[in-house]
């Protein structure tokens, strides 16, 4: 079979079909189910752009979700995912079809009911995942243009997290936990130094970037070069910042349930000392 044999057209944009390699698949593509019936053959060469859900569990979840979702929204999300795939030049985790469709559908219902949910990690998300955040902005603009509903800036952040989850192949809860942890760590630094960060400032951006890469190294189990002489010097010269860095690494260990290599402590101390020095210069 050199194409897809249709079992059932679920709507204009989604069909269930038999694929020569993958067996039964759910195929999503603009207009792919229009005027189609069971037994029809669609040449793969004739299909310009589509997504195929091969995972059986993802297929069943998507089929259950479809009747609850407006068909126009399916088309919008299909366009959005094609935009992400082309922009990022990567394969997306299949689960984004379910996760993003469900999320945006529910966000539209909340908006209609006048229910607003604030995004507590909006600024961290913008700093941590700037590319995904820009795509989130594109998504919200597209929804407003096609459906006449402005989901607002908080939803940009939520959509960005779903995109990052699919691109990095991480569970959305893992991504959210990392953002939450960074938010907590920034709060500890701000309180300890009595230095309220200006959101979007260079200091804020640098701290978030440092913490992000530290967390990624810890999760990967990547070890930094340990400089014992420097570590001893930092402990003597900057005891308060060293203690604060130690506190932060303990929070990371506790939340991630992973060991933090000692070298992270030294590099974090240097960063905190630079921040503290800037604060003192600002207040002189």
UniProtKB/TrEMBL annotation:
InterPro entries: BglG_antiterminators, CAT_RNA-bd_dom, CAT_RNA-bd_dom_sf, PRD, PRD_sf, Transcrpt_antitermin_CS. Keywords: Repeat. Signal peptide: none annotated. Pfam families: CAT_RBD, PRD. GO terms for biological process: positive regulation of DNA-templated transcription. Residues 68-173, 174-282 form the PRD domain. GO terms for molecular function: RNA binding. NCBIfam families: antiterm_GlcT. Belongs to the transcriptional antiterminator BglG family. GlcT subfamily. This is Transcriptional antiterminator, BglG family. It comes from Paenibacillus algorifonticola.
